[in-house]
Amino acid sequence: MKKHFWIKKIIGFTALAAAFGSLLSYVVMRLWNGILTEVVHVSPISFVQAIGILVLSKILFGGFHGKWGCGSRNHCHHGMKEKWHNMSPEEREKMKEEWRNKCRTWRRPNNEPQAGAE
Predict the structure, then answer these.
(1) How far apart (Å, rounded) are the C-alpha atoms in residues 54 and 63?
(2) 108 phi and psi, to 5 degrees?
């Protein structure tokens, strides 16, 4: 039951993201063709070229930040620093150990057994 729910959710999110991307590309194409062709005398662009312009703008300017992103690196680090300074020494040591274990698990080759697993 849960697997079926998550499959629907992933398909729905993918369709929503594709629809949003298509709408945004269409708006870019219409604005480019409606304004820039007359003002700057550039060639009209196609829908696919509008998608390319959006991807290029993402690469060059790093736009489209959402709720899931930090927006800026300093914002993320500031929150973590504040949390770290409010921890007791025991909590800090526990957190360090948890991160050491996570990093060991991440770097472990697939054929090597997990620590504690037999």
Answers:
(1) 10
(2) -70, 130
pTM of the model: 0.50
Reported residue count of the chain is 118
Rounded distance between C-alpha atoms, residue 7 and residue 1, angstroms: 10
For 78-110, write each residue's pLDDT tens digit: 777 888 888 888 988 888 888 888 777 666 555
Q: Which residues contact 87 (CB under 8 A, 6 or more apart)?
A: 95
CA-CA distance, 100 to 53, in Å (whole number)? 42
Sign of dihedral through CA atoms 59, 60, 65, 69? positive
Contact 45/27 with Cβ under 8 angstroms? no
Domain extents in the chain: 1-64, 72-108
